[in-house]
Amino acid sequence: RGHRSIEEGVWAMAASRSGGAVGPAKKLKIKPLKIKPKLPANFVEETWSKLQKAIQAVFSEENVAYSFEDLYRAAEDLCLHKKAEFVYENLVHECESQVTTVLGKLTQQKQSTTFLSELEKEWQTHCNQLLTIRSIFLYLDRTFVLQNSQLKSIFDMGLQLFRKQIESSPATERTLSSGLVEMVTQERMGDQSVDRKVLKSLVKMLLLLGLYSNHFEDEFLQETQRFYQKEGVDMMKELNVLDYLVHCEKRLTEEEENCKEYLDSFTFSPLMKIVEDCLITKHLHEILDKGFTLCMDQLKIADLRRLYTLCDRVGSLDLVKESLCNYVKQRAGEYVTDDKNNSQMVQNLINLKANIDKALQECFDNKESFHGSLKEAFEYSINLRQNRPAELVAKYIDSKLRSGNKGGGDEELENTLDEVLVIFRYISGKDVFEAFYKKDLAKRLLLGKSSSIDAEKSTIGKFKTECGSQFTNKLEGMFKDIDISRDIMTGFKNSAQVQSKLKHGLELYVNVLTTGYWPTYPPVEANLPSELRDYQDIFKKYYLSKHSGRRLVWQNSLGLCVVKCKFNKGTKELVVSLFQTVVLMLYNDEDKLTYDDIEKATGIEAKELKRTLQSLSLGKVRVLLKEPKTKEVNRADTFTFHKDFKAPLYRLRINQIQLKETQEENQNTTERVFQDRQYQVDAAIVRIMKSRKMLSHTLLISELYSQLKFPIKPSDLKKRIESLIDREYLERDESNSNVFKYLA
Predict the structure, then answer these.
(1) Is it true that the peptide bond before 628 is cis, omega within 30 degrees of 0?
(2) Going along 149-256, which residue ranges are E strands?
(3) CA–CA distance, 76 with 138 (Å, rounded to integer)
(4) Cβ(387)–Cβ(666) under 8 Å?
(5) Tens of pLDDT, residues 432-456
């Protein structure tokens, strides 16, 4: 089948005949009408009249007399006969008339709530009516209107007329915007009668009409600021800080939900900024001052998390960090400077650090910037009392590693040591710690009071990891001495030559200590029983025969003995110090001795003798009876052997006196640390000056502070510089006395 254009007026068709032969094609001609068709008279007027009645019926919400199809065809016919512009203009007129009439009636409403309710109804009705009218004039909307860019679609035209009518009446504008703002305020105040449907619908109407920004948003934000400024002040007075934070969180959540539900998305940022500023930012210092310490003391995780989240919203995490650091300085400073509670200082600091770590992890997102500031806060607080915290940390570790402590198993001990190590890191005077730790370790090892050698070595390993091998070199040397002593004593006991000289019924164990590794002990003389002196001489000859060129010095203050003592009620074994042993051995010959008798016989210095007699006659285990019965030992006292002494245990330990540190020992340890520090300062000054040759006083002091690892006063540094000048290591410059020169 072929075809040509209709304008040519001819269709060529071919038909098959029987037999398959094709005949000539017949031609069909289309001729124009002889008489041109005309529109019926009054066609436009009548058709528009029909459409107008339908429009008015829609606006008046009455039944339309014509079917939807008839009305659609009528509108289409007018458009096809080039009356589209006429139809559009008349349609605009009808819509404008309707909007004017409807909104004109609403302006007569005096109550804003009634006005808003009625306006919302008319708005919904108007939108529905526009959809119906658009359906009737759909052909017009999709042809004529679409082809003319300057014209608005029927629905948009209806919205524009509604907006125009609202803008033409300032009173209507004010009533609408102020009424909506008042509804929002009433809802914020908890008024349940507010019709959220009306509020939501009218706000969306303003968005749709393009009136939102100019006629609602500014007034809404101004009222929001006024409302929350007042509420912030009032609530801070009425509520405690923690309840106020809950209130802030609730308000922010409500405003976020409201914004998502019926406000423009561009309103979200300025709205939340106003609420955050009025409720949080303006009161943040007061919130932190009143509530932060309370939350941390009671470790209120939920409240701290809430506070952190709110501060994060307003970009004030630095204030939270500052408050946390101030809290650490306050609490840690209280623990460190409290002289009356020294025994609890380290445990209190451990508990404080644990609480801070928990708060960091669960409340403050483990913020990296917090860690550095907290480290500085702890270091500042712990070193408020120079040297004392280092000493107390050493004693705390001693109490945990000493046998007989009430701690749990190995795992719990390991955890405790890890916790103490954290506090140890903050100590600036680590040399003080080392001195006291070494002294306590020596007593634990020599007096057999260590709970676990493995735990001791594990602790040394932790210090080595933390401070390096130089810090633990002497501590490790102490363990080596103990191991070597064990081998020496094995050889001593297995020596046939030695065994032939020993008396039966007496055993001796000697720890040979390298002087440089162990603490310095002042020699304390005593008149030892002949049995002990003989044993010492035998061991000394044996040892020097194996190690020529060495010198042995007996440390009597560290001696430990197990003595069998016979009482009327039975025999007991007493674990006592060497000095206690020397005193008790006197009672093999006498039952009653005066203080002067004991002093003369033992040769022990007065201070040490008084401590020894006090432990034997005034302690829990009283094997001597003192007369008179006073709490102090005096020269006029007499001491009698307690024959009727009794106790449930067979072995009794009376040597606790050896573990207790005297004030003199403490002072000597501190003085030795200061002496070592002087040597370190001198070495540092010489080292710096040797490399720089000439240096001003200010630069030298600055360089020293950067090299020295312990706190020291500028006045002490000045004394060491003067000492080096006197010893001719340095000299002052002739032209400037504040400049020093190195003397080769």
Answers:
(1) yes
(2) none
(3) 9
(4) no
(5) 888 888 888 988 888 888 888 888 8
